[in-house]
Design goal:
The protein is α/β, with parallel strands linked by helices. Among the domains are: 102 residues, Chondroitinase Ac, Chain A, domain 3; 41 residues, no CATH class; 190 residues, no CATH class. Helices cover 24% and strands 19% of the residues.
């Protein structure tokens, strides 16, 4: 301090405590209890921070610092503020939160330059009318006190923009607050307001949650002549706090994160600061905000708490405030870590040596039978049923979802059968398509997709043009063309479908859906394998297209395009359906396990 006195032009002085914490994580106050009188010579001082110390009275030197603009006194032990405080005519910001203030000096109203005043978390039960003289006041915070009423002079704070009064015991508010021209927020949450002036009731800047609006006064639970116990105090804590004070009277506490605690009378034997690990005399109500998952069926919500380095479950029930806003409520025996979880429904039973049956309440089809002798002594057994990834699902005895579904012979059989059935079903349309495409310029014999099916004067596939030399086809041309199609398409479909499924299986991860890139890689692999069969057909097609191009021109390649679309779409659809019926797996299963 001697060095500070030698700095007469000092503008800012910070003597803030709270730089250390105890073993429970609570902030330790500084030991500063006063200031030397010689500091009154710091006449240029504009900023003084004495927060988190042990001041019980305001140091006498402070009212002499006439240029002081910001004075921070929060988290001390101040029981009162002196009348001399009114001498700080340049003061614009005063913070005295988390002290023991029970009253305010009338001289406070003389601070005409004061713009921000924070007196939250104290023990104020009244305000002096002189507060209405703070003509420059823009923000006033009186949250978490014991105020039951407000002076009408507050309506004279014409510069006021923010008025915070939540967590008090207010039963009425002045109607004149609605006429403050610059007020943008009036916080009246968690008070005892049963009615408010109509001007405030519908005002968009007023917050009234947590008040018994419209409720009748409750009857006195005490016999006549018994003193009426004041309303239970309500605390609304800020994010800075890591501890708070609870008296044997009890209180309602709302933490900055939204967690709510209800301390009944007698929860603590004496006034005690609640810290991590403190055990209560009675169970305390706890409410944790819970955002429900999209799928809530077969799931339960449980609050878990940490005690003696292990987690345990607490009996929990849900209270719905809104469709997507739930509170997990339980009774807690101590102040510790709490966690709300959503998990599969848990079922338990005691299994004796005689046996037992345990079934899932979430999945009634899941049952576990413990036969007699399964255990030599009674045991508590718990079960949770959770749907796993597809790779872990139970498989049917046959079909493409069985382990044998990844057998290459089974896949080739499936693909071949799929090709046979698909070609057979779409052959009439394929016949029409081939005949329409085979027409030569000047020989337009067919005008629609149906007319080729009523004539048999042209070959039914391009291969017959090469084999038969262009002569008249035999009258059994339909089955002949079908045989050629079956011969060529069956191996092509068998290889393509089997290869595609083979590559998809080996590119998947734990049964998860393939990414777009892996889908493309599987298709490329199947196409590469298909080339083995389709190369001869492709060579024939090139030769025929070359002849068509020379004789008819480029427009000939579009002949029968809509017919081809009618062929390919159902052919591939039918082939896919038949492939996944698992016929190959069934046949191989019968061969490996013949019936007696």
């Amino acid at each position: 301090m001697e060095r500070v006195r030698s700095l007469p032009h000092l503008r800012s002085l910070v003597l803030k405590g709270g730089q250390h914490w105890d073993a429970q994580g609570a902030c330790l106050r500084g030991s500063l209890a006063t200031l030397p009188a010689s500091l009154r010579g710091l006449t240029c001082l504009a900023h003084l921070d004495l927060s988190f110390n042990s001041l019980e009275t305001l140091p006498a030197c402070i009212p002499h610092m006439r240029h002081l603009g910001a004075l921070l006194l929060s988290h001390n032990r101040l029981a009162e503020l002196p009348e001399a405080l009114g001498a700080l005519s340049a003061l614009t910001f005063l913070s005295a939160t988390h002290n023991h203030l029970q009253a305010l000096p009338a001289a406070l109203g003389a601070l005409s330059a004061l713009q921000r005043l924070d007196l939250s978390e104290n023990r104020l039960d009244t305000l002096p009318p002189e507060v209405g003289g703070l003509s420059s006041l823009q923000e006033l915070n009186l949250a978490s006190n014991r105020l039951q009423s407000l002076p009408a002079s507050l309506a004279g704070l014409r510069s006021l923009q923010l008025l915070v009064l939540h967590s008090n015991l207010l039963v009425s508010v002045p109607a004149g607050l609605a006429r403050l021209p610059l007020l943008v927020r009036l916080d009246l949450r968690d008070n005892q307001l049963r009615e408010v002036p109509p001007e405030l009731l519908d005002a968009p800047f007023v917050r009234l949650q947590g008040n018994p609006l419209g409720e009748a006064l409750p009857g006195s639970p005490s016999p006549p002549g018994t003193p009426v116990v004041p309303g239970m105090p309500r605390l609304f804590l800020t994010s800075e706090l890591d501890s708070f004070l609870v008296t044997p009277q009890g209180c309602s506490v709302t933490l900055a994160c939204g967690v709510r605690l209800q301390f009944p009378a007698g929860a603590t034997a004496t006034s005690v600061t609640i810290l991590h690990g403190l055990a209560f005399q009675q169970d305390v109500g706890l409410w944790l905000l819970f955002v429900p998952p999209r799928a809530r069926r077969c799931r339960e919500v449980v609050v878990r708490t940490l005690s003696d380095d292990s987690w345990s479950d607490l009996e929990t029930r849900l209270e719905e405030e809104a469709p997507k806003r739930l509170w997990a409520h339980c009774q807690v025996p101590h102040f510790s870590w709490f966690l709300v979880v959503s998990r599969p429904v848990s079922n338990a039973c005691l299994v004796p040596p005689e046996g037992a049956l345990l079934w899932s309440s979430g999945h009634p089809g899941v049952k576990v039978t413990f036969p007699p002798g399964a255990t030599e002594e009674p045991r508590q057994v718990r079960m949770q049923v959770q749907r796993g990834p597809p790779a872990l699902w139970p498989r049917s005895p046959t079909g493409p979802d069985t382990p044998s579904a990844h057998s290459l012979p089974a896949k080739l059989i499936n693909g071949g059968i799929a090709g046979l059935i698909g070609v057979t079903c779409v052959f009439p349309i394929d016949l029409a398509k081939t005949r329409l495409q085979n027409q030569q310029n000047g020989q337009r014999m067919y005008t629609s997709i149906l007319s080729p099916l009523t004539h048999c004067s042209l070959p039914c596939c391009p291969l017959q043009l090469v084999v038969g030399g262009g002569g008249d086809p035999p009258q059994h041309d339909v089955p002949t063309g079908a045989a050629v199609n079956l011969t060529l398409v069956t191996p092509e479909k068998a290889i393509k479908l089997a290869a595609n499924d083979f590559f998809r299986h080996h590119l998947s991860k734990d049964g998860q859906k393939l990414t777009l890139l892996r889908e493309m890689l599987a298709g490329c692999g199947a196409g590469t394998c298909q080339v083995i069969v389709t190369t001869p057909m492709e060579m024939l097609k090139i030769q025929l297209q070359d002849a068509v191009l020379r004789n008819e021109g480029p427009s000939a390649f579009l002949k029968g395009a809509y017919c081809r679309a009618l062929v390919i779409a159902p052919l591939f659809g039918i082939a896919q359906v038949v492939y996944f019926l698992g016929i190959g797996e069934t046949l191989l299963g019968l061969l490996q396990n013949p019936q007696p």
